Structure formats: C-alpha cells, structure tokens
Amino acid sequence: MALRNIIKDPDPGLRKISREVTNFDDRLRELIDDMRDTMHKADGCGIAAPQVGILRRAAIIETRKDFYLEMVNPEIIESGGEQIGAEGCLSIEGYNCNVARPQYIVLRAFDRFGKRYELRLEDFEARACCHEIDHLDGILFKDKFHSEVKKEGK
Q1: Measured between alpha carbons, how far is 60 from 129 in angstroms, rounded to an integer?
Q2: How far is the C-alpha of 87 from the C-alpha of 109, rounded, in Å?
Q3: Mean pLDDT per 10-residue section of the chain, whose length is 154 residues
Q4: How many Cα atoms within 13 Å fall on the side-chain side of residue 80?
Q5: Are the C-beta atoms of 131 and 121 separated by less than 8 Å?
Q6: DSSP string over 30-85
Q7: Which pLDDT value is given to residue 150?
Q8: How many other CB atoms are there within 10 angstroms of residue 111's CB atom?
Q9: What integer pLDDT is reported at residue 112 of this predicted model?
Q10: Local structure of residue 113 (DSSP, 8 states)
Q11: What's the CA gap between 153 and 95, in Å, rounded?
Q12: Helix, strand, coil percentages, rounded to 5, for the chain
C-alpha cells in the first residue's frame, strides 16, 4: 500500500467523468487500499479515484470507526428527504459550504471483488456517499453551494 498525491482544484481531471470499472483485479484492490491510506493520512472521511488521478468509478467512505464502505461503479437507485449541512473536500483545501443532499439513499454498487450489493444509507453516510459519487461524475461540492457555513459566534 502506498500514499498517492491528492489532485487539487482547479485540476481539469476533477471535472471529467470517470469510466466504469470492468476488471475486479489486484490493480483495483491496490488502488482502493492506496486510497484508504491516502484518505487517512489527509484526515478525510471519503475519497474517490479521480482525486488520486485515476478516472475510474471507485470511491470509499469511512465516516466513523465502525463504518467503512468501498463503492465500485456506484449508483443511487432511490433517494428521499433533504438535509443541509457543511461539506469540505480533500481536493479543495480551506473551503467549506453548506450543501443540500438527500436524507437517505439506496446505493447499488460492487465491492472490490465484483460482488454486487445494495445498501440504504442515511444522514452523514448518505451525504458522504453522494459527495464521492459526484466526484465520479466530475462534480465538486462547491457546485452545489447552498449557503455559507455559519461561523461560531457569528
């Protein structure tokens, strides 16, 4: 496993649509492991392959110690409700804004071995998943700006 460089905005690679993963092989597993190491080093809770310069539909989230999710070729097949909350991004340092996201989603994806799964996610996990899937479509959270993040004491 190795650390990879995180691509920073305004790099044009962040605006490209990622290609579907077709080979569930050792290279994919190495990429996912490297992404996790890179995310941990950067103190993030999610990262997508385009953020490390790989235009493939793979992303991970780890929103707490007991919740880690690998998503290959993810798609949201159902969503509902709305939540508005602060977001940041490893590719956009020093900037946060509020973004509106679904309160819940139903995710369909594959794991690193090509096994398909469906999972219902709510609250912060739904938000993080949507954020990372947006990366796979060349969308950054700031494109979905809802409002400024309120600073403490203001």
Answers
A1: 8
A2: 23
A3: 94 98 98 98 97 98 96 98 97 96 98 98 98 98 93 60
A4: 3
A5: no
A6: HHHHHHHHHHHHTT-SEEEGGGGT--BSEEEEEEETTEEEEEEEEEEEEEE--EEE
A7: 79
A8: 14
A9: 98
A10: T
A11: 19
A12: 25, 40, 35
Catalogue the active-site residues: 132
pLDDT of residue 43: 96
| Contact status, residue 47 vs residue 90, Cβ threshold 8 Å | yes
Query: Phi/psi at 144 (nearest 5 deg)?
Result: -110, 25
Cα→Cα distances 94→9, 44, 90, 91, Å: 12, 13, 9, 10
- With H, G, I as helix, E, B as strand and everything else as coil, classify residue 154: coil
CB-hemisphere CA count at 13 Å for 9? 16
Q: Which amino acid is at 106?
A: V
Q: Taking a C-beta distance cutoff of 8 angstroms, is the pair 36, 58 a contact?
A: no
Structure tokens at 51: 């953020």
Sheet holding 83-89, edge to edge: 83-89, 92-101, 145-147
Calculate the dihedral angle through the C-alpha atoms of 127, 15, 62, 115, rounding to the nearest 10 degrees: 100
The pLDDT, as a whole number, for residue 125 is: 98
CA angle 138, 103, 114 (to 5 degrees): 55
